[in-house]
Amino acid sequence: MMELDIDQSHLPRVQEAQTESPAVPVSVRHTPTESGAKELCQCFAVLEDGALAHSLQEQEIEQYYNSNVQKNQLVQNDIRIAKRLQDEEEQQLSQATRQLEEQDSEYARRIQEEIQRCAEEARRREEEDEEIAKRLQEEEMDIRRQRLDSGRHGDADDFPLIEVQILLFIL
């Protein structure tokens, strides 16, 4: 059998069996006993448990890290969506405000036109009334002249009739 060199610095210590002869080589002096084998198995079990614990801890850290990455990506995505929705709402509000302003402007224009039309109508009526009053006054003056020319002086009964006619035209 071929002997292999084994680095024993990382292996657990095995109790050495003391022999009477110090001249016996060390490799021969290390004869494992049953309790040494158990101790060696226990050490390997401890090392395996440590390696398993380390592996589980690494997995837990990796899962925690991945979970944080996912959460951060979700938050960033939610922020983008919220920003987009806010921009859309602001755009709709701006559009609605602009439409209301246009409607208000149109209503104001219509009201102004109606006011101008009413004012023009009132001015026209006033001019017509003045024309009628002027014509009636001229007719009355013609009647008075005719009466004066014909030698007849005006009766008191004739004048109220003309005044009533003037009032009826004005109303």
TrEMBL record:
Disordered: annotated segments: 1-29, 121-140
Residue stretches making up the Coiled-coil domain: 37-146
InterPro entries, A to Z: CCDC50, CCDC50_N
This protein's UniProt keywords: Coiled coil
Claim: Coiled coil is one of the keywords in the record: yes
Keyword set includes Coiled coil: yes
Protein name per Swiss-Prot or TrEMBL: Coiled-coil domain-containing protein
Protein species of origin: Albula glossodonta (roundjaw bonefish)
